[in-house]
Design goal:
Chain A: Pfam families: BPD_transp_1. The complex is a heterodimer of chains A (about 325) and B (about 450). Chain A is mostly helical and about 325 residues long. Chain A has 13 helices and two strands, in the order ααββααααααααααα. Chain A is flat. With about 450 residues, chain B is α/β, with parallel strands linked by helices. In chain B, α12 runs parallel beside α18, α17 crosses α19 and α18 runs antiparallel to α19. The relative contact order of chain B is 0.14. The chains are: A mainly alpha (about 325), B alpha/beta (about 450).
Chain lengths: ~325, ~450
């Protein structure tokens, strides 16, 4: 063993040196969290992959190996496959969300009063608990059951303008049901996007605006040629995150409709498969599919982030050369 | 210096670990004081720990009140411990030896394992003479390990006043009469004739499944489905009439509420009491809860299933709630057995809850007074070679007769009905289920 100074010492002595202590204290401190992590995250995850090739119930009594049968079910059985279709609603919704967020962010970056107030108001839904948001919107979309219950908020407001109450959660119209749920999702998450965009826009040097002003650019041209190119990495990052979000939607539909009326999502279906239908093997396969999608998306996201970091580094190198 | 550091690092480890140990240690010792170590209370009486799922009756003190007579008679102290999530909690406790002296037997324990956890209370031949449902917690050697504390009959919950206001004098005997009566309520009163409570569909819709056996009037029907390889939705069976009734009912917007997604369970109890709701499909367990919320408890009635079996009679299946058993590790087994006998018999708990008492010679609760024309029966025991097969097929096929998940046929039927898709959709859905069921059955039974 060698110490920093290059002196040769025995292992026992080395342990007493600064490096030695650093090592074993780190190991001791890491031992418990790592043990917990392995025990409660990695072991179950590895088991889950194993289970996904089996047909098994919740007690795991004589499981049967079925190969890729479970995966085949997920991608061929319409009961399961439809959840991917529902994810498309959320994906489409997130495009709308990005556009609106970008618009609002641009407005909030211009010279208006009470910017901070608006930022706070718009960001607030993101801080609220998803369950609370869902319950608020359950009331919001209520079509009353006279004489038992009153019309919900939205229908009451519509009634002020003389409109007939609308049945928002109409079993005959799953498109409308999903659109309502997507609206809730947009409402909840848009604050986060707005803040991200504001941050990106504010990092643009004011000199550029000034220069473009002198050149006589109008606000639209400024956005098209200055703002948008500068925040492009953030936009692509947000779009990737949207894919992740769209596939893992859970609490909003689970609380508002319980996944009924054709609004079930992939995660809701996974939970039902495991704990209501007790087909644990199939549910594990679904979880693995979700895991793979998330990993792929995360890798793409990491790739984009790296691009953003590397570019300035490269350019400085060139300058130095 | 170095030594000091090592020692202090070690010390930190030891302290944090022992703190954890001490915390859990504290926990178990306090648990123990209520369970093991203090089996005698301060005044030297024997202590009996009873684990139950009835948090409501423990919290309002009525169980303690009721038990005083037993405590005096036997000079003991009965301590109730109630769990909100009973099956979940009890499964954990049963991993140890300390799970009370008397407890409700969770259904997760397989019949063949009963002897590992519970004391036999008697043989089937002895017990079945006195008790209903004696075969429910019985092992292959016919030892009975638990007696139900009460049972339920299958029927339909309704508001008598609403029904009589609509001019209905005779209770419906067939699905057509039932639907016609509901239409009458819609025409003549302001009440909503039938309330689906669809917001909680995952359990409310499963209430329909409990009607199936009563619709056939055949205690052996579930076994026959397996032995005779009947179609699950055979038209002369139990499933078809029940779910056809549900489909037709849900397809008629005039007799159900308008917005199903925002129905409210707790409020529905009040509304039915106020006569704003006419009818709901609920087990008889719900009667007591609805009466508690009603202005006039006598308005809440319970009628037999409005489906007449092939032989022209109406039937009502009775089924037990939890069975009460004695822990194999109980300290005072004789006292515990005495308590089980007392609790399921003379305590009168079942009567008070409006349930059917387990003792055969006891009177039916008066909420079943409208069942005079209906014949009660109990589901027959499953022959040994078929034990567990029904559930196995059910899980394997994904039909899920007792489930209410979003792919379940009940949800599909209900939503097709709500959307007004009509008869063809009904046929398509049940045909698909028949096929799934038959495939899984043939694979498992060969």
């Amino acid at each position: 063993m060698k110490t920093k100074n290059g002196r040769n010492v025995g292992f026992g002595q080395w342990l007493r040196t600064y490096e030695g202590q650093k090592l074993y204290v780190s190991i001791l401190f890491l031992l418990i969290p790592l043990a917990l992590l392995v025990l409660f995250t990695f072991v179950p995850a590895v088991n889950m992959v194993g289970y996904s090739f089996q047909e098994r119930d919740q007690f795991g009594v004589d499981p049967k190996f079925v190969g890729f049968e479970n995966y085949k079910t997920i991608f061929t059985n319409p009961d399961y496959f439809i959840t991917f279709k529902n994810s498309l609603y959320y994906l489409a919704g997130s495009f709308v969300q990005q556009i609106v967020a970008l618009l609002v962010a641009s407005i909030l970056c211009s010279k208006i009063r009470a910017k901070g107030f608006f930022k706070g108001v718009l960001f607030f839904p993101y801080l609220m608990n998803g369950v609370a948001v869902s319950i608020i919107f359950l009331r919001f979309f209520t079509k009353g059951n006279p004489p038992l219950t009153q019309e919900g908020t939205l229908n009451s407001v519509l009634a002020l303008f003389g409109a007939e109450p609308v049945r928002w959660f109409d079993p005959a119209n799953t498109f409308l049901v999903n659109c309502c749920l997507v609206f809730v999702s947009i409402w909840r998450y848009i604050g986060f996007d707005i803040i991200m965009y504001i941050g990106a826009i504010q990092s643009i040097s004011p000199d550029l605006y000034e220069a473009s002003n002198l050149d006589g650019a109008n606000p639209f041209q400024q956005f098209r040629y200055i703002v948008f190119p500068s925040i492009k990495p953030i936009v692509s990052l947000q779009l990737i995150l949207a894919v992740k979000g769209a596939i893992s939607v859970f609490e909003i539909p689970y609380i508002i409709t319980g996944g009924n009326y054709g609004s079930s999502t992939f995660v809701i279906k996974t939970i039902e498969t495991a704990f209501k239908k007790k087909q644990v093997g199939l549910a594990c396969a679904m979880a693995v599919v979700l895991l793979v999608i998330i990993i792929v998306v995360t890798l793409i996201q990491k790739y984009f982030f790296r691009e953003g970091d590397d570019k300035p580094a490269k350019s400085t190198k060139k300058e130095a050369a | 210096m170095n030594k000091k550091r090592i020692i202090s690092a070690m010390l930190a480890c030891v302290v944090s670990m022992s703190a954890a140990a001490a915390l859990s240690g504290c926990d178990s010792s306090s648990e123990g004081s209520s369970g093991k170590s203090a089996k005698k209370s301060e005044d030297g009486k024997a202590v009996l720990e009873v684990l139950t799922h009835r948090t409501d009756r423990v919290d309002d003190g009525s169980l303690d009140e009721m038990t005083k007579a037993f405590e005096e008679e036997n000079n003991c102290d009965v301590q109730y411990v109630a769990y909100q999530d009973y099956t979940g909690t009890i499964a954990t406790r049963m991993g140890t030896d300390d799970y009370g002296d008397v407890l409700m037997i969770p259904d997760d324990v397989e019949l063949k394992d009963l002897g590992n956890f519970f004391e036999p209370l008697g043989t089937y031949d002895e017990m079945s003479a006195t008790y209903r449902w004696a075969d429910r917690k019985m092992d292959a050697d016919k030892n009975v390990y638990g007696i139900a504390y009460g049972g339920n009959a299958v029927g339909v919950l309704y508001n008598k006043k609403v029904w009589s206001d609509a001019g209905i004098t005779d209770l419906p005997k067939t699905p057509d009469e039932f639907l016609a009566d509901l239409q009458l309520i819609a025409d003549k009163t302001d009440a909503i004739p039938y309330y689906t409570q669809y917001a909680d569909a995952s359990w409310t819709i499963t209430q329909w499944q409990s009607l199936v056996l009563s619709a056939t009037g055949d205690p052996e029907y579930e076994n026959k489905l397996l032995t005779d390889k009947l179609d699950l939705f055979a038209e002369d069976g139990g499933y078809y009439p029940v779910y056809k009734l549900m489909f037709d009912l849900f397809s008629t917007p005039s007799v159900i509420e308008e917005d199903h997604m925002t129905t409210e369970w707790e409020s529905s109890k009040v509304w039915m009491g106020e006569g704003k709701i006419g009818t709901m499909m609920m087990g008889s367990w719900a009667i007591a809860q609805f009466r508690e919320q009603a202005e006039n408890p006598d308005d809440i009635g319970y009628m037999p299933v409005p489906i007449t079996a092939a032989d022209g009679k109406q039937y009502a299946e009775t089924a037990p709630d939890y069975c009460v058993g004695v822990s194999k590790h109980a300290d005072n087994k004789e006292l515990a057995k005495k308590y089980v006998e007392w609790f399921t018999g003379e305590s009168g708990f079942a009567e008070k809850e409006g349930m059917i008492p387990a003792k055969k010679d006891s009177a039916l609760p008066d909420n079943l007074s409208e069942f005079e024309n209906a014949e009660f029966f109990e589901k027959a025991a499953t022959p040994e070679e078929l034990v567990g097969k029904f559930n196995e097929i059910d899980t394997k096929s994904g039909v899920g007769v007792y489930n209410g998940d979003t792919d379940n046929f009940k949800i599909k039927l209900a939503e097709a009905a709500f959307a007004g898709k009509g008869e063809d959709e009904f046929k398509a859905i049940i045909a698909a289920e028949n096929e799934k069921w038959a495939a899984a059955r043939d694979e498992i039974l060969g």
